[in-house]
TrEMBL record:
<dbReference type="InterPro" id="IPR001867">
    <property type="entry name" value="OmpR/PhoB-type_DNA-bd"/>
</dbReference>
<dbReference type="InterPro" id="IPR001789">
    <property type="entry name" value="Sig_transdc_resp-reg_receiver"/>
</dbReference>
<keyword id="KW-0804">Transcription</keyword>
<dbReference type="GO" id="GO:0005829">
    <property type="term" value="C:cytosol"/>
</dbReference>
<keyword id="KW-0238">DNA-binding</keyword>
<protein>
    <submittedName>
        <fullName>Response regulator transcription factor</fullName>
    </submittedName>
</protein>
<dbReference type="GO" id="GO:0006355">
    <property type="term" value="P:regulation of DNA-templated transcription"/>
</dbReference>
<dbReference type="Pfam" id="PF00072">
    <property type="entry name" value="Response_reg"/>
</dbReference>
<keyword id="KW-0805">Transcription regulation</keyword>
<feature type="DNA-binding region" description="OmpR/PhoB-type">
    <location>
        <begin position="124"/>
        <end position="224"/>
    </location>
</feature>
<dbReference type="GO" id="GO:0000976">
    <property type="term" value="F:transcription cis-regulatory region binding"/>
</dbReference>
<feature type="modified residue" description="4-aspartylphosphate">
    <location>
        <position position="51"/>
    </location>
</feature>
<dbReference type="Pfam" id="PF00486">
    <property type="entry name" value="Trans_reg_C"/>
</dbReference>
<dbReference type="InterPro" id="IPR036388">
    <property type="entry name" value="WH-like_DNA-bd_sf"/>
</dbReference>
<keyword id="KW-0597">Phosphoprotein</keyword>
<dbReference type="GO" id="GO:0000156">
    <property type="term" value="F:phosphorelay response regulator activity"/>
</dbReference>
<feature type="domain" description="Response regulatory">
    <location>
        <begin position="2"/>
        <end position="116"/>
    </location>
</feature>
Amino acid sequence: MKILVIEDNADLREVIVRSLEKERYVVETAPDYSTARTKVFIYEYDCILLDIMLPDGNGLSLLRELSERGRRNNVIIISAKDSIEDKVTGLDLGADDYLAKPFHLAELHARIKSVLRRNAHNGERNIKLGNVTIHPDTFKVDVDGRDLELGRKEYDILHYLVNRANRLIEKQTLAEAVWGDSIDQADNFDFIYAQMKNLRKRLKAAGATIEIKTVYGFGYKLVVSS
């Protein structure tokens, strides 16, 4: 899961990033409006933490543009402006939640998980596809109830693809989602090939009824085996 933290306060931004990385999220940051605007329209994020008061713009303007362009993002506004007007405006513009500063990191984590569950899994804690179940809260996977041991990146790849089952996913998009946006400067995708090979082996050995297909010249597609 990849999160973009749009926050101009460097100390708070660092605290949020460290806490999210401990929860195994891939985290990108934007300290101002212009950087945030560039990132949200180039890269994909599972969740955006959006401060309203930015040095070169207003976060609500960015939210409005996302809405106008039909971009569906899980957006949680984090703002020192705890006003009813800002809350209503933000929610009307498509924000999924509003968290006033100061806040406890535990509450932030809970809000992120709630928004992701609500918008991706109809409120269900676990994700099931075929005979494979992913438990995001514990980073566990089982096949027909039997634990499947995966490395961290193998889990992250599987989690990402299961959330986008039956969709063609470009190698570049997968790499950015699992390793971060800076990976777009990589010379090749050998690091993905190695992880994918191991993941496929483990799924097959466990008798999983899902399969990761290679779409040559494009990327990957996860399907339920026929």
